[in-house]
Amino acid sequence: MTSTPILGAIAQEGGSYAIEPLVLGELHPGEARIRVLATGMCRTDAEAFDMVSLPAVLGHEAVGDVLEVSEPLGDIKVGDRVAVSYPSCGHCHACLSGRLWLCESNWALSFDGCRHDGSRPITWRGGEISSAFFQQSSFATEAIVPARSLVPIPRDVPIDVAAALPCGLLTGTGAITNVLALPPGGACAVIGTGAVGLAAVMAARIHQAESIIAIDIHEDRLRLSRELGATHAFNASAPDVLEEIRHSFPDGIPSVLDTTGNPHAWDLGLSQLSRGGTFAFVTTPEPVETYRISPFDIFLKVANMKPVLLGAVNPRDQIPRMLQWWSAGGFPVERLVRSYALADINVAAEDSVAGRTIKPIIVMPDPSEGGPRD
Length: 374
What we know:
- The chain is α/β, with parallel strands linked by helices.
- The chain has two domains: about 5-165 and about 335-370, Medium-chain alcohol dehydrogenases, catalytic domain (Quinone Oxidoreductase, Chain A, domain 1, Alpha-Beta Complex); about 170-310, NAD(P)-binding Rossmann-like Domain (Rossmann fold, 3-Layer(aba) Sandwich).
- Helix content is about 25%, strand content about 25%.
- The protein has helices at about 45, 95, 105-110, 160, 165-180, 195-205, 220-225, 240-250, 265-270, 295-300, 315-325, 345-355; strands spanning about 5-10, 15-25, 30-40, 55, 60-70, 80-85, 120-125, 125-130, 140-145, 150, 185-190, 210-215, 230-235, 255-260, 275-280, 305, 335-340, 360-365, 365, 370.
- The strands form four sheets. Strands 3, 5, 6, 9, 10, 17 and 18 form a seven-stranded mixed beta sheet that branches. A six-stranded parallel beta sheet has the order 13-12-11-14-15-16, sandwiched between helices.
- Helix 5 crosses helix 6 (about 195-205) and helix 5 crosses helix 11 (about 315-325).
- The chain is globular.
């Protein structure tokens, strides 16, 4: 096993990426080296500029081919096509009980910029660089990843579809299937119809919800929400939005999912929650924001509040499930994605923040042709 020259995007101070030659180090036990074909970009990558030590190699939703393994890795073999999802340690009580999303080391493995033992798999200009982001750092042509994070996938799945699944869409669908456990004939509201929210809308339709309420401030997102399964759509910026929702749902909404972390969205969602209902949230308001929730109001409604971390799902269960939905035509991920060459990663990041693209997919150069992959 030797070090490997690769190409990657380095996250820099100031919020931009620079495409640079890098070196990928040797494998550790339990790891595989993959050729990254494409990787999704999501909100977490943008937030990571303020969460990890910079410069860093980010990226955490890869799809690729296994090039090398450190040792026999169960069903993972050289040549396999894989999706790379979130990391877990495999040793804590949560991991041993099969609840990988509750891994005690998940945060450190995702954001500390190194392996669990403190080593860094990528070097730049002769020195170690913050890497192992989500234990993959997949904004690069190759990556070293733990076998625990790998999910085998069929080769006939388009790489832009596969790269959209491992984190954001996994979280949105899991919020519906596992956290809210939405029953057939149920009703739910989804606040924020980006990639996570639209995945939740599609999952709610697949689970035969009777009422699926999309809430956003962008009319184009609301139109798309209706096309993907929402039965109702409300513009949160409308002055009479609360009255409109109450008119349609006078008894409130039993399941509400917020994907925005906006404190105003929390106010809206909690105010529309029915008695005995559940308010689930993917992200919280920023720490500097004031939480304007009333514990007494929640008590009077006998309501529940549930955080959603990684959809409360195991990737090896949820990613194949999403691919089955996609194959059956009920989960049209291709409606959400737009592909960008690695060289255009800054354009992708700008389009994502501006809302011009719901789910950017960064496509790596083809090593045999020197250009982007199809």
